[in-house]
Amino acid sequence: MTDNNTVDVETLARAKEYVKQLEAGNQAQADLVLGEITELRESELFNELGRLTRDFHEAINGFNSDERISLMASSEIPDAKERLNYVIEKTDEAAHITLTAVEAALPICDSLDGTLAGLNDAWERFLSKEMDAAEFRKLSVTMKNFLNSSNSDLTAVKSNLNEILMAQGFQDITGQIIKRVITLVSEVEKSLVELVRLGSGLSVPAAVEKNEQSEKSKTASNGADLDGPQVPGLESDTIVQSQDDVDDLLSSLGF
Amino acid sequence: MSSNKDIKILVVDDFSTMRRIIKNLLRDLGYTNTTDADDGSTALPMLQAGGYEFLVTDWNMPGMTGIELLKAVRANPDLASLPVLMVTAEQKREQIIEAAQAGVNGYIVKPFTAVTLKEKIDKIFERIESEKA
After folding, report:
1. Which long-range contacts (CB under 8 A, 24 or more apart) does A102-111 make?
2. Do B15 and A226 make contact, defined as CB atoms within 8 angstroms?
C-alpha cells in the first residue's frame, strides 16, 4: 500500500480531473474519472490482500511444523489446566484447614475470656471484703477448675495455631506450580507474537520483544529442568510417593 | 543438638512463607537462633562468615539451587561437616540419590509435618553425637 505520508500522484491527477469535469458540468465524464479512481484503489487492495493471504498461509504452515508448539497445544496446555486446578484445590484445602482451626480456637478463647471475667469480679469482691466464707470456698473451687482447664485449653489453642502455621505451606507449593504455568504462558505468548509477525510482515513491536527478554532472564536460572511439586495425575515416573519412601530410599543408601 | 538449643541455624528457601513456617516450627522445637536467606548465593557468604551449626535448605531456587549450595558447603573445608537438611518439593528418586551422594544429612519432601521435621532433626543430631562418641 502507498505510504501514508506521500500522495499517490496518479490518484491526485485523476481527482483534479474529476473536480474539473464536475465544475464544467460534464457529469458523464466525471463518472468515468471516478470509476478509474475506484479501479486504481481496488487493484492495490487486491494486491495487498493477496500478499497477506500468502504470508498467512506460510505462517500457518510454519506453525504446524513447529513441534514445540504442537507439544504445547497437545499436552502442556492441558497439563497447565490440571496444575491450576490443583492450585485451586490446595488453596481451598489450606483455607478450610485455617478456618476450621480458627473456628475451633475462638470458642475456647471466648470461654476463657468469660471465666476470667467472672473470676475477676469475684476476686475484686473478695479484696474489698464483700465475700463470706461459703462464697469464698466456691470461688476457690472455681479457681482450681479454671487453672486445670486453662492448661488444656491453651494446649488446644496452640495446636490450632500450629495447624494454621502448617497450612500456609500451600503458598510455596502453589507458587512453584504457578511459576511453571507462567513460563508456559510466556512461551505461548512468544509463539503468538511470532505468528502475528509472520502473518503481517510487520516487525515485532519493541515493547513485546523487551518483555520477552525480561521473561527469559527471569526464568533462565529458575531450575527449569527440575520437576517441582507433583500434581496428582501428572506425576513423573520416577517419583517417590511419600516421606516414608524417601526414608526407605535413603536407608537403602546407608542413611 | 538435643543438648544445645542455642545453635545458630540458617533456613534457605525462595518462598518467604516457607522460611517463616520452618523458623516457627524450629522455634516450637526450642531452636530460637535462626536466620534465613532466599537462595544459595545469598546463603553461602553467610555460612562462610561462620557461626552456623545447622543448615535447612530448599532445592529449587533461582540463582543458586539447594543442591549447588550443598555441594559448595561440602567442598569448603570450613563448612564440610555442617549438617544439612533438605526440605523440598523435588521427589524424584534420582534427585534424592543425587542429594545423598552430595552428602545431605536428611531429606524431607514437601508438604511435610511438624513431626517429620522434629524426627529428622533429632535423627541427624543423634547420628552426629554417636559418631563423636
Report:
1. A102/A160, A102/A164, A104/A156, A104/A160, A105/A156, A105/A157, A105/A160, A105/A161, A108/A153, A108/A156, A108/A157, A109/A157, A111/A153
2. no
3-class DSSP state of B108: strand
Q: Do A239 and B61 touch (CB under 8 A)?
A: no
Give residue ranges of B with CB < 8 Å to any A CB: 13, 15, 17-18, 20-21, 24-25, 28, 59-63, 65, 89-97, 100, 107-114, 116
Distance CA A60, CA B46 (A): 53
B17/A168 touch (CB, cutoff 8 Å), yes or no:
yes
Work out the number of other CB atoms within 10 angstroms of the CB of residue B114: 16
Give SS3 for B84.
strand
| pLDDT tens digits, A66-109 | 777 778 878 888 889 999 999 999 999 999 999 999 999 999 99
| Chain B nearest CA to A247, separation (Å) | 8
Which segments of chain A have a pLDDT < 50? 1-3, 203-204, 207, 212, 214-222
CA–CA dist A10, A41 (Å, integer): 11
User: Which residue, among B92, B100, B47, B7, has the nearest Cα to A223 in the 3D structure?
Assistant: B92
Cross-chain Cβ contact A172/B65 below 8 Å: no
| Alpha carbons A107 and A153: distance in angstroms, whole number | 10
- Least Cα separation, residue B94 to chain A (angstroms): 8
- pLDDT band of residue B5 (cuts 50, 70, 90) is confident
Looking at beta carbons, which residues of chain A come within 8 Å of B63?
221
Q: Is the pTM of this model over 0.90?
A: no
Q: ipTM, 2 decimals?
A: 0.75
**Distant-in-sequence, close-in-space partners of A139: CB < 8 Å, separation ≥ 6:** A119, A122, A123, A126, A131
**pLDDT reported for residue A40:** 82
